[in-house]
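Field: COMPLEX_INPUT
Field: COMPONENT_COUNT = two
Field: RESIDUE_TOTAL = 513
Field: MODE = joint
Values follow.
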Amino acid sequence: MFRAEYGRAVSVLVRVCGDIDLAEEAVQDAFTAAVERWPSIGVPPSPAGWIITTARNRAIDRFRREASREDRYAEAALLRGGSEPTEEGPLRDDQLRLIFTCCHPALAPTAQVALTLRFVGGLTTAQIARAFLVPEATMAQRLVRAKGKIRDAGIPYRVPDEGDIPARLRSALAVVYLVFNEGYAASSGDQLVREDLCREAIRLGRNLAELLPDVPEIMGLLALMLLVESRRATRTTADGALVLLAEQDHRLWDHRLIAEGQAIVRQCLRRDQPGPYQIQAAINAVHSAAPTAAETDWRQILQLYDLHLSIAPSPVVALNRAVVVGEIDGPDAALALVDALDLGGYHLFHAIRADLLRRLGRSAEAALAYDEAIARSENVPEREFLRVRRRALAES
Amino acid sequence: MKQYLLSIYQPDGPPPPPKVLAKVMRDIDAMNQELKASDSWVFAAGLHAPDTATVVRVKDGDVLMTDGPFVEGKEHIGGFTIIKARDLDVALEWGRRLAQATGLPIEVRPFQGEVED
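Field: COMPLEX_OUTPUT
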């Protein structure tokens, strides 16, 4: 209960205080008061409303104690900011305001992620630091600098103008996707999956979908995350070793998540306003629909990649499409496509090349490619998987 | 009301051909007119080339003068515009206009303090 209410309360207080630090202090005071008083007065009928009202009163008291010219204007804003905080419309606007502010493109992506997880997600600084494998002091500094930039550069607390919303939404979705990706294939460290981050990203995605209903790319991202998450149980062995998609036991996938993801994909298809997240979700939906890996409908996936390339081309998309071509037309055709790409810095480029070369019996070249992939991977289970493959080459 | 510095970062070397330069100046002028009309304009001007600069330093009570810009680099500040704006979004929009007009990167940086509206 607390984390959801925390995010909502902070968003209202940010509107009335115009400052994240003050908002955060006021809300934390209110939570402390709740913990102290609810055991004796009982849980109020509207816990969220109690928190918000208490936080606002604390903020007003604080302004009155520190009476200076600027503060008196702020106090007036506090007193004016009087719409009932748990009404759907204004609360929704406050939450959107907070999300868009945390995801402002003038902030570095790492700062956007930290702010969103802290103030929208309600995670503690320590939790976020652990999730991103940095010292707590580093994460705390990151947050301080980001809040400092919001204050000093004048990043406004408002929902963007309608014309700007698509671009700003891209920023917000990128933050959510970054969190999910960090959780799903941790870019460094010992574990392949960090469940807490994936869950948090899905929560943020659902939150956005609730606040901005019927935006196809938001739905697409949510479906994508649900479908990828549905495979978590089969992505690693009990020892944490990596298992490829082709070798996963489909029966162990979470079919509830698959059903939800596929339903969303169907809705998106009906809308016919394709976008990258929706297409990636659809691709995953096709994978999830196959009873066994051998029955995967590769041709349908190829069509989806073609659509992706036509609306949002990128070398990584072309790389993933080449893998699909490999499944349909064989490794030779795929290798020709892969070699034409300029992705030398990307570990998966080398891993995919290595696999294709291996299938073509070109072992010496495959070994070199595995070495390149291993050198660039920062993930222990992935590196181990690649090493096993490389060793198998030497033995054949 | 906040103020922001929009600095134009220009690569070293000869200026663009006259026809290109003329269009840039027209676009900058148009932008300055709009800035003035919206009461956002504080100051705007182009700078002479960096080799016209002089650096003045005080050390142990002596004044030292050096010919040339403070920072030697491949780019220099070619000019700047100071605007008043309610928030960063407004300032960034003017920054975008200036970037489009000049074809150059623009640094948008807030001044400390506030001024009257």
